[in-house]
Amino acid sequence: MIFLVTGNQQLFNNENYEVISVEESLKKLNTLKIVGVDTETEGIDVHTKKLLLAQFGCFDFQIVVDCRTVDIKLYKNFLERKDILFLFWNAKFDLKFFLKEGIVITNIYDGYLAEKLQWLGYPAGQHSMGLKAAGLEYCNVELDKSVRGKIIWSKTLSDDIIIYGAHDVKYLEKIREGQLVKLKEKGLLKALAYENKFCPVLAYTEFCGVKLDEDAWKRKMEKDREGFETAKTELNSWVEQHFPESKYVYKELQGDLFTGFDENPHCIINWGSPKQVIPLFEELGFNLETFDKKTKETKKSVGADIIESQKDKSDIAPLYIKYKGYEKLVGTYGQNVLDQINPVTHRIHTNFNQLGCDTGRLSSGGKDKEHNVEYLNFQNFPSDAETRACFISEPGYKWISCDYSAQESRIIADVSNDQAMLDLFNKGCGDMHSLVAKMTYPDKVGDCPVEEIKHKFKKWRQEAKGVEFAINYGGDANTIKSNKNIPLSEAQEIYDNYMKGFPGVKNYQDKQRAFVMKYGYIVLNDKSGHKAFIYDFDELQEIQKKFNAEFWNTYKEYKKFHPQSTIVEEVRHYFKRKSACEKQAINYKCQGTGAAMFKLASIYLFQYILEHNLLFKVKLCIPAHDEWNIEVPEEISEEMTSVLENCMSRAGSFFCEKLELPAEAEVSNHWIH
After folding, report:
1. 673: how many CB neighbours lie within 10 A of its CB?
2. In whole angstroms, what is the distance from residue 498 CA to residue 481 CA?
3. pLDDT tens, 180-199?
4. How far apart are the first and last CA of the chain?
5. Do 267 and 235 form a contact (C-beta atoms < 8 A)?
6. For residue 472, is pLDDT > 90?
7. Structure confidence at residue 263 (pLDDT)
């Protein structure tokens, strides 16, 4: 049964629903322990658009509240009850519109997040995350979404809109029941509990946004444009000098009576077009193949990171990397940043994806199709001091930046249980890069104490950083050879030295490789229970089953005489995917632990804010991997600095029991780190 709550009762009389009062609706809703919730709004921006409808209920009855004539604040006490579980689909969106009305809903279940958890690791789009698809899968009912657009432009509340809104909450409980069965089978119930607790934190973060110093940003934009033009000129000059007679340049040899001849070469490459840039870099010997995390396929890329890893192959590399940096500053981080200043709050409100990465990490960005705006990606924002200083606290407020000390290295030490690494952190006898230098370059560093390497052997400490990064994330001697452009024998010696010095890491990596190829998933963190799944594991198993003596004899013949045959391609595909899966198994657990740690720290922080009546006073601005940036009233900045450090340290201690994971905060008037 559908019930309508509206201030225009005389306009509605339909056999499909009954008009009731706010009091009558609350009497019905307060009998429930599980309540479905949904909203319909004018648009996606909470600060400039209005809440039109709010729907509450269960399978047996649904309440549709006409928010254009009824004050939704009348439902505040009900929605903030801790003994009722509120079911949403993509709760972050709805929670922001309730926050705008001063309503803070924290005891939630998000069906969208429950679905996302089951498909971490799969290519985007392989499984629909929409409510309509969930209705079909779990309830065998098709939810009509054709009315959605009408709600925004319609000036009146119609019968079909009322029924549409009611149906969006009617099946949420049954969908949850079906999801819980699958989540339990996959061991994901604990992971979902973490995500449901974190979701209101992220909604509040997007609601708060961040203040931009517009004048400082405009000055930086002008400087960036000049840098961009200079970088492009340097690239063109390099090509004109090194490839004067190539397809990459043009000479005006025809001439005319007015302009004459110009025999000087002019580079014709559009540096913003990968299609035009790829041939040049391939000709220079760069390997441009990379793994696309979205499609789960390999592709060619001339991204700055690809060229950076092979910068020793040509002196065009630093010029191109410089150009790409300015290209991003001028494009993504130029006028686009100013365009996103909200006309109501005068702050920037970007989008965060709670399970945006296979590791459970946040991602940021995306597109607002309604306003044709590309959201800022604060997870990958330029880190130079000039850029960061443009994001500021309001007058009377302070900015606090707090991040973990060597989080990545400490997590690796903890999950691998490597004694040398644990001793380093627990005894405070130096930094990780120095220890890696001592282990991997013993003939260079000798018996120098770890704590002195940073000053006495800067070069080898710097070299060790690349080795540490490569090996800790699943690389081998070939990775080191490629990254450092050194002979394989030298790279192998470095790799062997590392594994000899850190036997715990070797043991951890061996176990991770074996586990993922046996079970088809990666446990991102043992305590939180998050998992990332190998999307094509069944296919890989079927191929692996063929690997007997007869198969390999046939394969050898085909490889020799028919290298493009199906059997050869199948073997190549299997081992390529196996290698990728094993690297992910090593990498993902560390990143997944960091993600879970950050989310738990955020939950602690939000609980403190709520318990001390600091909502809308303490603003959560920018979460960036292992770092929180918050804005607080100046008079409580010292208190909140201590609180933030404590919340992050508590979460660190929970996930890393073998060593301390301290968090360090700094206070300023702008984004510091």
Report:
1. 15
2. 14
3. 999 999 999 999 999 999 99
4. 55
5. yes
6. no
7. 72
Using CA atoms, how far apart are residues 624 and 662, in angstroms rounded to an integer? 17
Closest CA to 649 of 577, 590, 597: 597
The packing angle between helices 503-519 and 488-501, to 10°, is 100
Which residue type is seen at 198? F
Quickly tell me which residue has 């044709």 as its tokens. 372
Q: Which residues of 112-122 are buried (b: 16+ CB within 10 A; e: fewer)?
A: bbbbbbbbbbb
Residue 108 is given by DSSP the state: E
Q: Residues near 468 by Cβ (< 8 Å), separated by ≥ 6?
A: 409, 432, 433, 436
Question: Which tokens belong to 309?
Answer: 């890893």
User: For residue range 78-123, what is the model confidence (pLDDT) as tens digits?
Assistant: 999 999 999 999 999 999 999 999 999 999 999 999 999 999 999 9
Share of the chain residues as helix, strand and coil, in percent rounded to the nearest 5 = 55, 15, 30
Q: Which two tokens stand for residue 37?
A: 């919730």
Distance, in Å, from the CA atom of 354 to the CA atom of 596, rounded to the nearest integer, reads 11
Tell me the C-alpha distance between 360 and 400, whole Å. Answer: 25
- Give the tokens for residue 196: 């449901």
Contacts of 193 (CB under 8 A, 6+ apart): none
User: Whole-angstrom Cα distance, residue 182 to residue 49?
Assistant: 37
| DSSP H helix total and E strand total for the chain | 28, 23
Using CA atoms, how far apart are residues 290 and 87, in angstroms rounded to an integer? 40
At residue 256, the pLDDT reads: 54
Rounded to two decimals, what is the model's pTM?
A: 0.90
Please compute the mean of the pLDDT values over residues 349-371 and round it to a whole number: 90
**Is residue 219 left, alpha or beta, with left meaning phi > 0 and alpha meaning psi from -120 to 50?**
alpha
Lowest-confidence region among 37-46, 67-76, 283-292, 642-651: 283-292
Buried b (16+ CB within 10 A) or exposed e, 565-597: eeebeebeebeebbeebbbbbbbbbbbbbbbbb
Cβ within 8 Å of residue 299, ≥6 positions away: 289, 290, 292
